[in-house]
């Protein structure tokens, strides 16, 4: 399994300037009567660097076609990443399969302290300061990326939590 990071600029249908980053390229084979047939699966993260981030998987016989499919899939799955300043609003654990990712807010200037699959999601989502740790029983980059997206989807800002509880925020 080859890992690669690559940035490419393009424009989404929403009018955002998006950056794509390849998280992993995996060559898979299928044994048939005539021999082996090789295909590629590519995991791509797309984001605007401010608050929009998406994750997509593309599969094809050629890497370039698989990347295009992954980018299109990621653009369709863009979500708004909730943040407080340049960090996360609260600690959270994301789960997907055997993968678990613990993410905690960090002080300004800390940077993105995260593994290879979590880092592009945080950077392209506009998070500048975060501490992340993969705590699950897997090192599969695909499952780790999906666990990170699970955590990002479940983030809530303090204003949302107050509104859901039916309370008003008191300023100190």
From TrEMBL:
What protein does this entry describe?
Answer: Small ribosomal subunit protein uS5
Q: Relay the domain remarks.
A: The N-terminal domain interacts with the head of the 30S subunit; the C-terminal domain interacts with the body and contacts protein S4. The interaction surface between S4 and S5 is involved in control of translational fidelity.
Could you tell me which HAMAP family the record lists for this protein?
Ribosomal_uS5_B
Q: What region holds the S5 DRBM domain?
A: 18-81
- Which residues are listed as membrane-spanning? none
InterPro entries the UniProt entry points to = Ribosomal_Su5_D2-typ_SF (IPR020568), Ribosomal_uS5 (IPR000851), Ribosomal_uS5_bac-type (IPR005712), Ribosomal_uS5_C (IPR005324), Ribosomal_uS5_N (IPR013810), Ribsml_uS5_D2-typ_fold_subgr (IPR014721)
Which is one Gene Ontology cellular component term of this protein?
A: small ribosomal subunit
Q: What family does the Swiss-Prot or TrEMBL record give for this protein?
A: Belongs to the universal ribosomal protein uS5 family.
Q: Which gene encodes it?
A: rpsE
Q: Give the matching Pfam families.
A: Ribosomal_S5, Ribosomal_S5_C
Q: What is the taxonomic lineage of the source species?
A: Bacteria, Thermotogati, Synergistota, Synergistia, Synergistales
């Amino acid at each position: 399994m080859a890992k690669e990071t690559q940035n490419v600029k393009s424009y989404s249908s929403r009018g955002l300037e998006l950056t794509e980053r390849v998280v992993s390229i995996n060559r898979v084979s299928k044994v048939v009567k005539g021999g082996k047939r090789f295909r590629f699966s590519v995991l791509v993260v797309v984001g605007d660097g401010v608050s929009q981030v998406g994750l997509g998987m593309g599969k094809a016989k050629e890497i370039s076609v698989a990347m295009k499919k992954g980018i299109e899939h990621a653009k369709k799955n863009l979500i708004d990443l909730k943040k407080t300043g340049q960090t996360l609003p609260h600690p959270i654990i994301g789960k997907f399969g055997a993968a678990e990712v613990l993410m905690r807010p960090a002080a300004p200037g800390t940077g993105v302290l995260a593994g290879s699959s979590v880092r592009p999601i945080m950077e392209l989502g506009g998070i500048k300061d975060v501490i992340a740790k993969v705590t699950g029983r897997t090192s599969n980059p695909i499952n780790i990326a999906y666990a990170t997206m699970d955590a990002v989807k479940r983030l809530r800002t303090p204003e949302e939590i107050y509104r859901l509880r039916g309370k008003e925020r008191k300023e100190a």
